[in-house]
Amino acid sequence: MMRLDRYLRLCFGEAVRGLIGHRRTAAPAIMIIGVSLVVLGGFLLVSDNLNAVLERWRERGHVQIFLESDMTTSQQQAIAAAIRASPEVESFRFMSAADAAAQFREDFQELGDLLSFLDDNPLPASFVITVSEGSRSEEALVALSQRWGTMSGVDAAQYDLQVIRRLELGVNALRFVGAMLGGAVLLAAIITTANVIRVLVVSRRREIVVLRLVGATESVVRGRFLAEGAIQGLLGSLLALVALYGIYKVGVAFVTAGGGPLVSLIDLHFFDVFLFATLIGSGVAAGLVGALLAFGAATNVER
Q: What's the pLDDT tens digit per position in 63-94?
């Protein structure tokens, strides 16, 4: 029985020579695998970074208490005293209506000028509260918001997790769309790879017959084509990673240059080891599946 290392060297050596000799035929399959993985990887990259932003936002544990416009000084002092006395509070600060308008202009520079066209500042004064780490569960934040929201002079109380839940729905929808689009293009890549390898099998009909006549096993005959599919998938995934890294660098420059209210929460990163392996594995798997589908042609070669 042929040793595994020798078998792999034989299969991959023949596969590399075959792909070099038929590079014009193999190039479309590699390109389509690359494009499909760019689509799939792009959605994975965006959703992974958005998840990281949401996680950091969740860890802040912020609750904001919006005050009524006609609130009295004594009511404000009573609210501040109640917040200060709460053991769940790590820190808090008062934000006047003027401070809120200034913050809005800083965070949304394109929209900040709209406030100058209004007779009155529509943004309310508020207390911005950072809850201690042990009280940042959703149940604890709900209880705190309900307790503070019923105080005299308070218009509403909102905690970050209310916004995070809505954003998480959007991230999950983005991931689903990416999986659907990437999967559809990846299916096209598999079909293209199968057609390419089928062409290679047919073009080597005489060579395959000779190999069988001299005693080559079916695993050796087919192993080279499986190796060709795996190599095509690997090259396509590497091509996709290069393209995605370029897109990532452009995206980082755009986001950091644009500023915005979430910039302080954003710590953009490229693929971690798991996603990197997922993308490479998807490309190799697409090539292997394409090669397996092409075996219909291989089994029809005359023995």
A: 888 998 888 888 888 889 988 988 888 888 89
Q: Which residue spans within the chain are E strands per DSSP?
A: 62-67, 89-95, 126-131, 154-159
Range of the domain at 208: 4-57+165-299
- The string of DSSP codes covering 49-110 is HHHHHHHHHHHH-EEEEEEPTT--HHHHHHHHHHHHH-TTEEEEEEE-HHHHHHHHHHH-TT
pLDDT tens, position by position, 213-260? 766 677 777 787 788 888 988 999 999 999 998 888 887 777 666 555
List, in sequence order, every residue forming a beta bridge with 130; answer none if it has no partner: 62, 91
Q: State the CATH number of the domain containing residue 113.
A: 3.30.70.3040
Collapsing DSSP states into helix, strand and coil, what is residue 301?
A: coil
**Based on the domain organization, do 39 and 88 belong to the same domain?**
no
Q: How many domains does the chain have?
A: 2
Task: For residue 166, count other CB atoms closer than 10 A to its CB.
Answer: 9
Q: What is the pTM of this model?
A: 0.63
Final residue of a structural domain among 125, 144, 161: 161
Q: Tokens 């949304």 label which residue?
A: 108
Max Cα-Cα span within the chain: 99
Q: How many Cβ atoms sit within 10 Å of the Cβ of residue 14?
A: 20
Strand partners, 91: 130
Let me know whether 91 and 156 are in one domain: yes
Residues 85 and 150 grouped into a single domain: yes
